[in-house]
């Protein structure tokens, strides 16, 4: 049963949320990943095929998904679901198109022009987990922002099932979202292939997408050689209720988080101790109908809690301390409180926005910072698929005015050649 | 002597630039950093003081720089240099203020509002190297963007000299740039203190700034627990000249890069083999006058080169392959070529913009991606000190329309509780 904690003190909250910060690296996972990456680096394609055989149970003769496989997936797929997929893609596209950024240029003085350009990454790799469930929503959430950014090549890697196939929903989502090449590879070995390249998979510039602890650790280890989006931990939700919400709705939303995995964290903060007990009871009732009830029950018991606090400002202060991945503001006038939220990945305003709406359909991204990292990481966005260059233009006259200051600064830092590169332009007028 | 390579083939270029990509982690450095970080994590303040004694040669009784120390630095500092520092700070502020971003919100349908907020990081830590030279420009380039972003707390760490002091220029720059607290700590131990916190240094949300291989590795290891800007390698410049530039100017600019360290890389690409030889000769002449000539000579010989190519498009193609940290376009009509530059950190247009102008005065940032990482990393900017949150608001009517699609998608992914959190809102109208 989910614990209810009334009027938690600072130490209780500290203990609660510091535990959700990333734990120190797990040595066994880190060593195992390091070995896999080393093998991919050294033996490329052959190591990748061999790990795929060992871990996914299939010896592939070809890593890349063919055009025929994609067409056959599109034929197989349920037309109602295809319609939902298209609606979702359209909404995600609409939201992310607002994230497109422009460069700028301006003149801070006569003969001077400064500016910044925004350019897309050339080639990105999206990782899509396989395993027990296929997540076509992940494909849309990662590939659409890359497409909007203008990336020329959008690769996707996802582990094959033991028959060597990829789920048709995943392939359909990839086609809809603009993925250019799809590879059957999973785990740390897929991350290695993206980072180092193999005979059939060219190395990419950035790797995005969720994954298990091995995938997360592999991304951490290749960071620097390539860019990565973020290091994802277990998913989490914080719901704030002022007491005017349906206990059944709140319980359903907590369960939607808890069913992800046993380490998922579902927290409710409310100003009503009566509501707290009602939600606790409704959780028990609703749990009984869930196929994944064992997972959800473990998550609620070990990682979940209901906190009763004095007032909404206290609840919001705790939210900023937790910096939750998902935040539902189930309160009257939710927009009144939005400016007070300093740290949260995705915010759901009011009582008619369950997190699941954002997971699938609303349009904002569902790849979000977890474990308190919303303090410094952002939701996945078009920004992840572009980078900037800055530029400087000075006319000769403008530069000659600046040269003495440049030289003075350089010499103060002990860099004589820097100073000379400025002053030499004063000494001689070269045409 | 710098090598001249005429009409390099693809294999030569590949070998040249793949070597500049980040090398696999150095095991000795990585283990040593891992030990230091572990000690800081476990023993905090005491470990930090002890490493400072061991590595910087001074036992400090207090890590934080006092107000008196800062005031005394401001009294000591040369007034001409203070003026240069102020000019530089003003130009950096002017450029970076153009990077401030707004959120957005829009309605994609009746009863729906979606948006994105941009919020500053609460507390950031800037690392400023010490050692042989003090770099006040680094302080300005890191702290000013953080200040413009709106960070409440801007910490700085820099190693003390053996007498326990910090250079007055560094302290003056910190005061000018808006640094809120300054700590005497260097190396991997300073990065550990920022990441984990100690008794006197609260943990920060993001660490930025350059450093040696130990600092870079420490940043890599704490990434995820905190954010970092990028992992910096040796500095580099690529100059493209169409043959109409002064060989002495080009040589001076190459030397300003080469004097940084022996691993720095200075490359010139030109369409004129006559110019190539003139620059080669001028380098030898100018080297003789440089205090750091030994370093510069080693850098030019081992890591530098002059490439002669057929035409400007060939030069630009090589630039995009190298993705240089600094790119000087010493050509007529440089703006004609700007749109063709896909990957470069900072671009200097025309023959009157030596890189040193950008290092100190022009305004664009000098903390730039190196070793080919300009393919995916950006120059340090205000973006580094903010993060975003996305939000979703649906009225009840709008949500009830969307609910079936949400549930269909969730069930296709095998997440029943997600589906129920949508459908339960259809079943009962709660007020």
Automatic annotation (TrEMBL), chains A, B:
<keyword id="KW-0560">Oxidoreductase</keyword>
<keyword id="KW-0862">Zinc</keyword>
<keyword id="KW-0368">Histidine biosynthesis</keyword>
<dbReference type="GO" id="GO:0051287">
    <property type="term" value="F:NAD binding"/>
</dbReference>
<dbReference type="GO" id="GO:0008270">
    <property type="term" value="F:zinc ion binding"/>
</dbReference>
<feature type="binding site">
    <location>
        <position position="127"/>
    </location>
    <ligand>
        <name>NAD(+)</name>
    </ligand>
</feature>
<protein>
    <recommendedName>
        <fullName>Histidinol dehydrogenase</fullName>
        <ecNumber>1.1.1.23</ecNumber>
    </recommendedName>
</protein>
<comment type="function">
    <text>Catalyzes the sequential NAD-dependent oxidations of L-histidinol to L-histidinaldehyde and then to L-histidine.</text>
</comment>
<feature type="binding site">
    <location>
        <position position="212"/>
    </location>
    <ligand>
        <name>NAD(+)</name>
    </ligand>
</feature>
<feature type="binding site">
    <location>
        <position position="359"/>
    </location>
    <ligand>
        <name>substrate</name>
    </ligand>
</feature>
<feature type="binding site">
    <location>
        <position position="189"/>
    </location>
    <ligand>
        <name>NAD(+)</name>
    </ligand>
</feature>
<feature type="binding site">
    <location>
        <position position="260"/>
    </location>
    <ligand>
        <name>Zn(2+)</name>
    </ligand>
</feature>
<feature type="active site" description="Proton acceptor">
    <location>
        <position position="325"/>
    </location>
</feature>
<feature type="binding site">
    <location>
        <position position="418"/>
    </location>
    <ligand>
        <name>Zn(2+)</name>
    </ligand>
</feature>
<dbReference type="InterPro" id="IPR022695">
    <property type="entry name" value="Histidinol_DH_monofunct"/>
</dbReference>
<feature type="active site" description="Proton acceptor">
    <location>
        <position position="326"/>
    </location>
</feature>
<dbReference type="InterPro" id="IPR016161">
    <property type="entry name" value="Ald_DH/histidinol_DH"/>
</dbReference>
<feature type="binding site">
    <location>
        <position position="235"/>
    </location>
    <ligand>
        <name>substrate</name>
    </ligand>
</feature>
<comment type="similarity">
    <text>Belongs to the histidinol dehydrogenase family.</text>
</comment>
<keyword id="KW-0479">Metal-binding</keyword>
<dbReference type="GO" id="GO:0005829">
    <property type="term" value="C:cytosol"/>
</dbReference>
<feature type="binding site">
    <location>
        <position position="260"/>
    </location>
    <ligand>
        <name>substrate</name>
    </ligand>
</feature>
<feature type="binding site">
    <location>
        <position position="257"/>
    </location>
    <ligand>
        <name>Zn(2+)</name>
    </ligand>
</feature>
<feature type="binding site">
    <location>
        <position position="326"/>
    </location>
    <ligand>
        <name>substrate</name>
    </ligand>
</feature>
<dbReference type="InterPro" id="IPR012131">
    <property type="entry name" value="Hstdl_DH"/>
</dbReference>
<feature type="binding site">
    <location>
        <position position="418"/>
    </location>
    <ligand>
        <name>substrate</name>
    </ligand>
</feature>
<keyword id="KW-0520">NAD</keyword>
<keyword id="KW-0028">Amino-acid biosynthesis</keyword>
<dbReference type="Pfam" id="PF00815">
    <property type="entry name" value="Histidinol_dh"/>
</dbReference>
<comment type="pathway">
    <text>Amino-acid biosynthesis; L-histidine biosynthesis; L-histidine from 5-phospho-alpha-D-ribose 1-diphosphate: step 9/9.</text>
</comment>
<dbReference type="InterPro" id="IPR001692">
    <property type="entry name" value="Histidinol_DH_CS"/>
</dbReference>
<feature type="binding site">
    <location>
        <position position="413"/>
    </location>
    <ligand>
        <name>substrate</name>
    </ligand>
</feature>
<feature type="binding site">
    <location>
        <position position="359"/>
    </location>
    <ligand>
        <name>Zn(2+)</name>
    </ligand>
</feature>
<feature type="binding site">
    <location>
        <position position="257"/>
    </location>
    <ligand>
        <name>substrate</name>
    </ligand>
</feature>
<dbReference type="GO" id="GO:0000105">
    <property type="term" value="P:L-histidine biosynthetic process"/>
</dbReference>
<dbReference type="GO" id="GO:0004399">
    <property type="term" value="F:histidinol dehydrogenase activity"/>
</dbReference>
């Amino acid at each position: 049963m989910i614990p209810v904690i009334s009027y938690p003190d600072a130490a209780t909250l500290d203990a609660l949320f510091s535990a959700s910060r990333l734990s120190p690296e797990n040595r066994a996972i880190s060593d195992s990943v390091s070995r896999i990456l080393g093998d991919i680096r050294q033996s490329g394609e052959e190591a990748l095929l061999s790990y795929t055989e060992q871990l996914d149970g299939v010896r592939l003769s070809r890593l890349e998904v063919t055009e025929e496989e994609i067409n056959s997936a599109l034929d197989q797929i349920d037309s109602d679901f295809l319609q939902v997929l298209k609606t979702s893609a359209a909404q995600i596209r609409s939201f992310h198109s607002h994230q497109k950024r422009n460069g700028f240029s301006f003149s801070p003085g006569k003969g001077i022009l400064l500016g910044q350009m925004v350019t897309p990454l050339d080639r990105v790799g999206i990782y899509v987990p396989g395993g027990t469930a296929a997540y076509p929503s992940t494909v849309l959430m990662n590939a659409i922002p890359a497409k909007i950014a203008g990336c020329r090549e959008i690769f996707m890697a996802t582990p094959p099932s033991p028959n060597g196939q990829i789920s048709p929903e995943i392939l359909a989502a990839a086609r809809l979202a603009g993925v250019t090449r799809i590879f059957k590879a999973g785990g740390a070995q897929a991350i290695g292939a993206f980072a180092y390249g193999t005979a059939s998979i060219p190395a990419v510039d950035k790797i995005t997408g969720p994954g298990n602890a091995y995938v997360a650790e592999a991304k951490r280890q290749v960071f620097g050689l390539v860019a990565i989006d973020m290091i994802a931990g277990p998913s989490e939700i914080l719901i704030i209720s002022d007491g005017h919400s349906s206990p059944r709705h709140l319980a359903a939303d907590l369960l939607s988080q808890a069913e992800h995995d046993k380490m998922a964290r579902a927290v409710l903060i409310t100003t009503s101790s009566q509501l707290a007990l009602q939600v606790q009871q409704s959780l028990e009732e609703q749990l009984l109908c869930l196929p994944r009830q064992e997972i959800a029950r473990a998550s609620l018991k070990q990682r979940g809690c209901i906190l009763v606090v004095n007032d909404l400002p206290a609840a919001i202060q705790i939210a900023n301390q937790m910096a939750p991945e998902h935040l539902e503001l189930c309160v009257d006038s939710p927009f009144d409180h939005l400016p007070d939220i300093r740290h949260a990945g995705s915010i759901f305003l009011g009582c008619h926005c369950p997190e699941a709406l954002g997971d699938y359909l609303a349009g904002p991204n569902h790849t979000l910072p977890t474990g308190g990292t919303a303090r410094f990481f952002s939701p996945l966005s078009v920004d992840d698929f572009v980078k900037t260059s800055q530029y400087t233009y000075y006319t000769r006259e403008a530069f000659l005015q600046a040269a003495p200051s440049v030289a003075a600064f350089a010499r103060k830092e002990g860099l004589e050649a820097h100073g000379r590169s400025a002053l030499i332009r004063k000494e001689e007028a070269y045409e």
